[in-house]
Specification:
single chain; disordered N terminus; about 60% helix
Length: about 1100
Amino acid sequence: MDDRMDIDGHPPAHYQDAGGGGAPTGIYSAAYFNNQYYDDIPLDPALMGTGRDDDAQVDGLDDDDLEIDPELLQDGGGMGLNAGEEEEEEEFLDSDTEELQAEIHKFETVRDAWLAEHRADLPSNAYTNLPGVSKKVSKQIANTLNDGTTTTTTTTSAAAPAAAPPKTTRPRRKLGPRKPAPPPPEIQFRLAQARKCFDRREYQEAINMVKEIIRQRPATPQAWTQLSLIHEELENREAATMCLISAAWLIPKDARHWMNVALYCLYGVDMIDDNDPRRKLALERAVMCYSQALQADKTNVEARTGKADALMQLGQSHLALAQYLRALKVQPLNIRTVRNLAEAALDGRDPRKNAEAAKGAYRHIIEYLWSQGDEVFEAVEGGFEWSDLRIYLEFFTILEQWEEGIAELRKVARWKLGRRAEEFWDRWPGEDREWDEDEERRELCEDYEPGRFSPMQYGRALPMDLRARLYVFRMKMGDTHEAERHLTALDPTVDTAVEDFYDFPDCLKDIGNALLDSESPAKALQYFNLYEKIADQAGDISMDADILVSLGRCHMALGDKSAAEERFIAAIEDDEDNIEARVCLANMYEHVSDREGREEAFLLVRDAMNLEANQYTLDQEGNLVPKRKRRRATGPRKPRKPRDPNKPRDPNNPKKYVPRRLINAEKRKQVDLEKTRVAAKNYEVVQELQDRAFHSDDPEVLQNWTRAARDLIEDFRSYKEFYPWDKYVKYLGLGGVGGGGAAVPSRNLKLAAMAERLRQGLNPENGDGTDNIPAASKNRVLKFPSAHRGISFSAWLDIFISLAFALVRQNQHREAYVVCHAARDSVVWTDTESTYLIHVAWASCAVYAGDEETCVAIARYFMRDYLPGTDSYRMFAAMCRTCQTPVSWYTSGPAQKFILRQIKTMDALVMRQNGDDGIPPNSQQSPSKQREGPQYPPPGDITLDVALLTIYGHILFTTTSYSYALSYFARAASLDPDNPLINLSIGLAYVHYALKRQATNRQYLLTQGFAFLFRYYRNRTEDDPTATVGQKMEAHFNMGRAYSLIGLGNLAGRYYRKVLEEAERGEEEGKGRMKKRSKWEETLVVEAAYNVRCMAFLLGDVKGAKAVAEKWLVLE
């Protein structure tokens, strides 16, 4: 991701934000970064305009050295100025003075550097190693020059060596990133001017100055930081963020700055809606900044945990988990990091895989705190709370370590209550007597000393949810006796039950599910009802799909099937991906006596299997692993907050209705009447907006009409009686049992066995669960009422076709195809007229979308089902010609084979009609042959079709198979010898064949080709008195192109000029209109003039080429 931006302050296109929004200021505002950078800039006070008096020297001259004529200062003098002019002139002079000072400072810096390189009496590295002198002596000379002393040194070998200078220690280099090089003086001066403009709130002027700095020296982080500060003041936080990121890229080794930019990106992100793209963009930028900070400093724990937190907010818990683990290697006692690690482990795809790591991290902190004392609970960044114990126990539940979980719960809870010294309770792992509400069993323990600790540290001191956890663990172990003691303290029928469980409502689910598993549905129902009561009073918790399924199971176990069905359907409506509710409903419907119930059971099972396949994926080793899902919250409920209204459902994706088969008939009738009322309302909207939606340019009207039409179509498609079983199953998105519809094999063998059992009970003929119509009723004519929902079926067909046209106009051609496909699959419109209308609409959508593949498919339908039909063959050619796409589908193998099969079928029918194929007219074919392919009409007046032969010849011609194309063109010419198109095709085939390398007799081929071309030319120009001007132009142009093809430009130019002459003649006779020219004809004047102009230019006739271009090639 490239987070740089241009100097105009505009982010890249994919970072553009239409929402805008203010830029909140705070500790991480752009000013914070601006001050940091300006602390590092060694600005010259002279350049900043500070630290000088008005009497300061200018250019080394004192005020006494300046001679000023007193007369010039008198009022009314020739150069006298009024007050306003004096202020403007003074400001102008100050600006010039500051600029002049900057230039002088720059000159002095360059001068000193030059002198240091060329003078040996100044400190310099230029003469560190003198020529002909050893390094040691050269160093002594350099030190002497630097100290201002003189030492006589000889270079001869007889000279006494000089005294060694005192040894100096080399200063140790300071670790850390290097500071950026200071900007040149002129850049410092411009930065100071930009800051002055910013202080005066002249933001646009400041932006222009900073842009100029960036243009001259883009690698100036101070300029980018100053620009971000300006954008923040202008409430353009997006541009300010991009400027800070651009500045950070200029100093990539500064981890501190990267972290500050990340915090700036995250400022206010919690107040943005989760579905807002700005939230995701801000988090991704923060992750990038933290990653760069870690590249600069890999030991920075703050950057690593910050990156992990941002990844968690992005929903990438598996990546955040790795960052938390690496952070704990540096700070293993950070309780905040451990909590985040546990959350990432619980939110991962497979919590069991990472449960041991999170549990070990908690265990390490607990052991450390125990080693510090009985009353020590504080770790790094927080203390160990009851909520940490709840999360810690969650991993024992995931790993199904019931005994270990009970032991840890008792130890840690005893420690939190201040009784860690009573370790003797661990000698009774099968009893929880220390948590009894009375003293009866505790007094039986010899080591127990009554009165040592307060009675408030036993029994009811244990939180309710932890006691519920003890009950669940004991039930999982099969210790029902000890579990019943805990259940007595968790009585849901007492008057204070709501207050007792108000902060821990989720533990009621655990207790109820444990009772339900132990076949105690009546008791479980009491806990579930208490949960529902708390949910109604609290308002910030809801009846989710899990509790609804559990309630349904209770009702089903108690024999109340109607109430159970209501709960299961409510669970599906709350969570459309819930599998358990579908399985329970299928179990109920399976035992219904009527066939419709078993069909719905089969649909529910198939839907559950597909959802199961989507919820599991294959890992790298090929094992099935669950996809990521959100876990339920642990610990006490958060403070109450206003309940947000449910998000409105997308009108284009309505819920699929699950029939309530076990409720009474009156309720089912009411539901049907409600759907009829909604359909009538949508139909009124469709009728009202029909004309305006298709004859106006108002997009809102078209969208409203499309929404109402979609609802009607969905209602029609959800009616099972209107579609065959396989089409209805396909509409629901269910794959076949044996067709490999599931992407992942089913993990639940019972579910797969149930689906197979239902399929066998439905007795489908094809064995894949997609056709349940009995054999006796297959030939029965289906009878439907004249209307559905009060709308006639002809009106329904109009809605289908109109919706397809509306969708293709909105560039949604795939959705338009689905609508046409749904209309074709329905058993309502099986007559020829309706089928023909549906396919014509389908073809129109394909042509409008330029989809040549679909055009070929629809044309094949017409050629197959309307045989013999010359118009269908012409429609195939016209549709392929209309699509502005390559000819890949026109010349594809399937299309070519299909046309060839059509020719062979036509030849067989003609030969059978004439009795020339050797097969008796009354001979019988095998049953398989009779079922394959369309049922053709009996032989009658069937003849060879010229259009079919010509189309196949053109397909071969396009694929450069000229010799094969000539055979089919010849067959067509034998049927219609005067057809201009056939003669032109034959002539061009011969000419192109002659130009191929494999041609053996080019002279013969060219002669044959031009013979047919001249026949075509005469048919167009001389033999046809009704020929239009456009047809004559076409003949002239084609002849010219043929001669150009073989390189005879002189002959080609003659025919091109005839095209231009025809155009001039038509203009003269028609006074500006071409004579006998149809509006559908294409004029070839421009093409002919262009070819003439090119030939003239190539032959050196520049004036002629210019004349043709000026007359015919000028755009009006």
